[in-house]
Design goal:
Blueprint lengths: L8 E8 L5 H10 L6 E6 L7 H4 L7 E4 L4 H18 L6 E5 L6 H10 L1 H6 E11 L3 H7 L1 H9 L2 E5 L6 H14 L4 E4 L18 H7 L41 H5 L2 E8 L5 H15 L3 E9 L5 E8 L2 E9 L8 E8 L3 H9 L4
Parallel strand pairs: 1-4, 1-5, 2-3, 2-4, 5-6, 6-7
Antiparallel strand pairs: 8-12, 9-10, 9-12, 10-11
Helix pairs in contact: 3-4, 6-7
Bound molecules: guanosine-5'-triphosphate.
The site of guanosine-5'-triphosphate (GTP) has 22 residues, from helix 1 and strand 10.
Length: 356
């Protein structure tokens, strides 16, 4: 039976470069008393699942695609997860897909037009891009996916307005407008926005996407490129190579390789010494800051009942006690760095030297 547009579940794709404020926005959406039931799909670029734990009220409705390889698996994985969601009883008022900061939104958006089953039951409502007012101009120069994220947006949150001057803000807004004059744009701090401006936009305009990327709906067989991404694919990278053909040539995904953006992550079950950890991490992001785009960690400190969560964007670090470790929870300290030319051995040695 044919379903009308109205009966389809709206899907919001939340994108934005590393550390721009996507998770902050997601948490806002989930915390507001809207009385709606959302399914959240979190896709992350990293070897260890951390994003999932940072989402408030994470439960079985948070699906993490911890595939370590953004380009090749995201679409197959996404289809599998959405198929699973659609089979669940009760249904959802909406699906929110938070993409990795490095993702080109094109293949994600493509999912909702190419897969028949998904297409029958869902509709892409809007691509919402969170842009970092402080770093976006730099990323537009060196990261094609940052440009694509702006280009694909229906709604743009120009976030972190507190970190720039009024003149800088006007300049970055002008850059955005040069790339995407159509999107609704809101200036925000801590991604604070009325969710009615983000959800149920009915804004995704396929025509405009086709204009930007004429090859958008082309099918082809080029799905053997994942090894270009080297570090991104671990030995347990669960690729589904039989998934729907997707086309790397047309989506600028090679840029991920060309720029050698990679992630390294480490973990230890031995408690850390905060007096060793903080000086170390502060120093490393100062020294390696330009190369470290993003860092994050969930840490267990000696004699501390609370989980400590920290995040960094370049050399700006932010951290806090999150909540007590649960009795049945493994007190594992995990840390992830995403960046260019990362010195894995140096980082690992430094991190492990913080054990109490
Ligand atoms: N100064 C400032 N910091 C902000 C603002 N919004 C978010 N942050 C901080 O920026 C960091 C990154 O925010 P997240 O919401 O985790 O960003 P993200 O886009 O989800 O990051 P990834 O998932 O790593 O790509 C956090 O430490 C936030 O607290 C803002 O408006 N101003």
């Amino acid at each position: 039976m044919a379903e009308t547009q109205a009966e389809k579940i709206p899907v919001t794709v939340l994108t934005g470069y590393l550390g721009a404020g996507k998770t902050t926005l997601l948490n806002r959406i989930l915390s507001q008393p809207h009385g709606k039931k959302f399914a959240v799909i979190v896709n992350e670029f990293g070897e260890i699942g951390i994003d999932n734990d940072l989402v408030v009220g994470a439960d079985e409705e948070v699906f993490e695609m911890n595939n370590g390889c953004i380009c090749c698996t995201v679409r197959g994985d996404l289809i599998r997860i959405i198929d699973g969601l659609l089979r669940r009883k009760g249904g959802f008022d909406g699906i929110i897909v938070e993409t990795t900061g490095l993702a080109d939104p094109a293949p994600v958006a493509q999912t909702f037009f190419v897969d028949e089953e998904v297409q029958a039951k869902t509709k892409l409502d809007a691509v919402v891009t969170v842009a970092d007012a402080k770093w976006l101009s730099d990323r537009l120069k060196d990261a094609p996916e940052a440009k694509n994220q702006v280009a694909f947006a229906d709604v743009i949150l120009l976030n972190k307005t507190d970190l720039v001057t009024g003149a800088e803000l006007d300049a970055v807004e002008a850059r955005i407008r040069g790339i995407n004059p159509y999107a609704k744009l809101y200036r925000t701090q801590k991604s604070e926005i009325d969710i009615a401006k983000v959800l149920n936009q009915g804004a995704f305009d396929l025509e405009r996407v086709l204009e930007l990327e004429p090859a958008f709906l082309e099918e082809d067989e080029h799905h053997h490129h994942h090894h270009e991404h080297g570090e991104a694919c671990g030995p347990d990278c669960g690729h589904d190579h039989h998934d729907h053909g997707h086309d790397h040539h047309h989506h600028g995904l090679k840029a991920v390789h060309d720029e050698e953006i990679q992630s390294v992550s480490f973990s230890t079950d031995k408690p850390l010494d905060p007096d060793k950890f903080f000086p170390w991490v502060q120093n490393i992001v100062q020294v390696e800051g330009p190369n470290i785009l993003r860092s994050k960690g969930i840490l267990s400190f000696k004699d501390d009942p609370d989980r400590f969560v920290f995040q960094g964007v370049h050399m700006i670090l932010d951290g806090d006690h999150q909540r007590p470790w649960k009795d049945d929870e493994k007190r594992l300290s995990r840390i992830v760095f995403i960046g260019r030319q990362l010195k894995r051995d140096l980082l690992e040695e430094g991190f492990l030297a913080c054990v109490a």
